[in-house]
Every structure is written in C-alpha cells, then in structure tokens.
Amino acid sequence: MDENIVELNIAIGGISKELLDVQKALDAYREKQLRKEAIDEEAIVFVTKAERVIEKAESGELQLTPDQIRRIKSNLVKILNRLQT
Q1: Residues 26, 34: contact at Cβ < 8 Å?
Q2: Residue 70: what pLDDT?
Q3: CB distance 25 to 52 below 8 Å
Q4: Considering the entire predicted model, what is its pTM?
Q5: Please, which pLDDT band fits residue 1 given cuts at 50, 70 and 90?
Q6: Which among 42, 50, 41, 44 is positioned nearest to 21, based on CA atoms?
Q7: Would you state the pLDDT for residue 14?
Q8: Is 55 within 8 Å of 6 (Cβ atoms)?
Q9: What is the model's pLDDT at position 35?
C-alpha cells in the first residue's frame, strides 16, 4: 500500500512540474507582451513546452483533465496566431 502511495506521489509530482513549466512559460510571454517587449523567444519557449505536454497527455504518459488540455491548446493557438502576424 505504501508503495502505491509513493508511486502516486511521484506521478503527481511529474504532472505538477510539467504544468508549472508550461504556466511559467506562458507567464513570461504575457509579461513581455504587457511591456511590449520582444516576445518571440518567450512564445517559442511556451509553444515548445505546451506541445510537449500535450503530446505526453495524448500518448498517456501524462494524466491531465480534458479542461487542462483544452486550456493549454487554447493558449497555444492564440500564441501561434500572434506569431504568424
């Protein structure tokens, strides 16, 4: 039983780190955007991390809720559209 709890804690820690990395990248992008600074680098960092998390979630490596996936994808689409203009 203790072994299952340890494995669950490790899995939760992995998910938390992945989501925190994506959130930090998004925050950095938004901060630069507010200051009207060059945002390309932060956008690329977010896109890279978000794509990796989505791929892991879709392959079953990372357990995310449908809402978490939807929100990441929504931000990803918005940022990609801004990069193209």
Answers
A1: no
A2: 92
A3: no
A4: 0.65
A5: low
A6: 50
A7: 79
A8: no
A9: 75
Tokens linked to 45: 């960092």
Q: Using CA atoms, how far apart are residues 55 and 67, in angstroms rounded to an integer? A: 15
End-to-end alpha carbon distance in the chain: 54
Integer Cα distance of 70 and 26 in angstroms: 15
Kind and range of the H or E run holding 59: helix 40-59
Give helix 2-34 / helix 40-59 axis angle, nearest 10°.
150
Q: Burial-class residue 43 by CB neighbours within 10 Å (0-12, 13-18, 19+).
A: buried
At which residue do the structure tokens 């931000």 appear? Answer: 75
What is the residue extent of each domain of the chain?
2-84
Whether 45 contacts 25, CB under 8 Å: yes
